[in-house]
C-alpha cells in the first residue's frame, strides 16, 4: 500500500548524513510512484511532488542533521495542506433549518451516513429531521426509518409514489413548522452517473436551496471516487465531501485528490458501519495515517528536536567565538523551555562536556522570566552593545520591565562575566582536544 511504499523510501533516506539534490530527486520519484499507485490524480501528484521538492532541496534540509526525517516532515506538511490544512465544518443557515443534501452513487453510504450525521448532531443537542427522498431502491425508506429509530430522530416520508422534489420541499416546510434546526435529505443514487439522476438532484437543489450539498464517496473506489467527485461537482456544485469506508484497507488516493480536484473540503470520514463511526475529517491526522502513523509521527517529532539541536549548536559556536550578544541571550531564554537548561546546551559543545567550570554557570529557572523582561525592555542597540548602558538607561529598563536597577545591574554583570569566560573557551577547548588526542 501507499504507507509501506513511502516508508520504505524514507527508510532509505534515514541512513543518510546529508541530502543531495539527487537524493531528493530519487525520493520524490518514489513518492510520485507511490501516490500514483494509490490512485491519486496525476495532476495532483505532479503539483504535490513539485512543492515538496522545492521545499526539500532548500537549505532547510541541507542543514538538517537527519535529512530523511526532514523530508518526511515536509511531505507530511504538504499532504496536510493538500487535504485542506484544517478541519472544515458544516455551513449553517442564517435562518434555521440548515438544509443538507446528501448525494452520491448507490452503495457509497448516503443513507448510513445520513443516520450517522443525525446521531452526531443529536449529541450536540441539535434537532435534525431526516427526509426520505430515495423512492427507487427497494426498502430504502425503511432503512432510513430504522436508522431514525436508533438515533431517536424523526424521519419525514411520503412513501414512494410522490416525487423526491416534492418530498424534499415538504420536509423543509415540516422542519420550519416544527422547529427542527437541520434537514438531512437522503437522495437516491445510481450505479453510474446518468442524466436522470442528475436532473432529479438539480431539481431538488432548486426546490430547497440547500446550505450544503455533501457528496458521499466510497474511499475504497480510488480514482473512480475522484472522477465521481469531479463529475458531481461540475453538474451540481457540491460544497464538500464525506469519505466513507476509511476503516477498511483503503488506499489513501481519494482523500488526497478530491480536495484538489473539486476545490471543496472533505468534511467527514466514515470509519465503520455503526452509527457512531463518523468523524470530522482532520487533514493532519489523515496525512499521518497515509504516512504510516506511529512510527512516522515520532520520527517527525525527532526531526523537530533535531532542528532545535541544530540551533543550539549554532549558539554554541557563537558562544565560543565571543560573538554572543544579549540578543542571542534573549533568543536563548525564549528557547530554553524547549531545549532545557543552558548547562545542557554548553555540554553540546565538543570537548567541553565535562568541564568543571561550566557546572558553576548556573541559571535559576525562576529567574528566566525576569531576565527575559529586562532584555525585552532594552533597545536593539543596547542589546547589541551593553556598554552604552548608562544610569538613566538602566533606570528606564528597570521601570519598563517591572524589576529594579539592582537586578538590571546584576544581569549586565553576569552577562559581562559570561562573555569574558566564553572568550577564553576556544583555547580551553583546544587544550582539552589535545589531551584527548594524546590518549
Ligand atoms: P447508499 O446506497 O449510498 O445509501 O449506501 P448505504 O448507506 O446503504 O451503505 C451501503 C453499505 O456501505 C452498507 O452496507 C453500509 O453499512 C456500508 N457503509 C457505509 N458507510 C460505511 C463506512 O464508513 N464503513 C464501512 N465499513 N461500511 C460502510
Ligand atoms: Mg441509500
TrEMBL record:
<dbReference type="InterPro" id="IPR003593">
    <property type="entry name" value="AAA+_ATPase"/>
</dbReference>
<dbReference type="Pfam" id="PF02881">
    <property type="entry name" value="SRP54_N"/>
</dbReference>
<feature type="binding site">
    <location>
        <begin position="244"/>
        <end position="247"/>
    </location>
    <ligand>
        <name>GTP</name>
    </ligand>
</feature>
<keyword id="KW-0378">Hydrolase</keyword>
<keyword id="KW-0963">Cytoplasm</keyword>
<feature type="domain" description="SRP54-type proteins GTP-binding">
    <location>
        <begin position="265"/>
        <end position="278"/>
    </location>
</feature>
<keyword id="KW-0694">RNA-binding</keyword>
<dbReference type="Pfam" id="PF00448">
    <property type="entry name" value="SRP54"/>
</dbReference>
<comment type="subunit">
    <text>Part of the signal recognition particle protein translocation system, which is composed of SRP and FtsY.</text>
</comment>
<dbReference type="InterPro" id="IPR027417">
    <property type="entry name" value="P-loop_NTPase"/>
</dbReference>
<feature type="binding site">
    <location>
        <begin position="104"/>
        <end position="111"/>
    </location>
    <ligand>
        <name>GTP</name>
    </ligand>
</feature>
<keyword id="KW-0342">GTP-binding</keyword>
<dbReference type="InterPro" id="IPR004125">
    <property type="entry name" value="Signal_recog_particle_SRP54_M"/>
</dbReference>
<dbReference type="Pfam" id="PF02978">
    <property type="entry name" value="SRP_SPB"/>
</dbReference>
<dbReference type="InterPro" id="IPR042101">
    <property type="entry name" value="SRP54_N_sf"/>
</dbReference>
<dbReference type="InterPro" id="IPR000897">
    <property type="entry name" value="SRP54_GTPase_dom"/>
</dbReference>
<feature type="binding site">
    <location>
        <begin position="186"/>
        <end position="190"/>
    </location>
    <ligand>
        <name>GTP</name>
    </ligand>
</feature>
<dbReference type="InterPro" id="IPR036891">
    <property type="entry name" value="Signal_recog_part_SRP54_M_sf"/>
</dbReference>
<keyword id="KW-0687">Ribonucleoprotein</keyword>
<keyword id="KW-0733">Signal recognition particle</keyword>
<comment type="similarity">
    <text>Belongs to the GTP-binding SRP family. SRP54 subfamily.</text>
</comment>
<protein>
    <recommendedName>
        <fullName>Signal recognition particle protein</fullName>
        <ecNumber>3.6.5.4</ecNumber>
    </recommendedName>
</protein>
<dbReference type="InterPro" id="IPR004780">
    <property type="entry name" value="SRP"/>
</dbReference>
<dbReference type="InterPro" id="IPR022941">
    <property type="entry name" value="SRP54"/>
</dbReference>
<keyword id="KW-0547">Nucleotide-binding</keyword>
<dbReference type="InterPro" id="IPR013822">
    <property type="entry name" value="Signal_recog_particl_SRP54_hlx"/>
</dbReference>
<comment type="function">
    <text>Involved in targeting and insertion of nascent membrane proteins into the cytoplasmic membrane. Binds to the hydrophobic signal sequence of the ribosome-nascent chain (RNC) as it emerges from the ribosomes. The SRP-RNC complex is then targeted to the cytoplasmic membrane where it interacts with the SRP receptor FtsY.</text>
</comment>
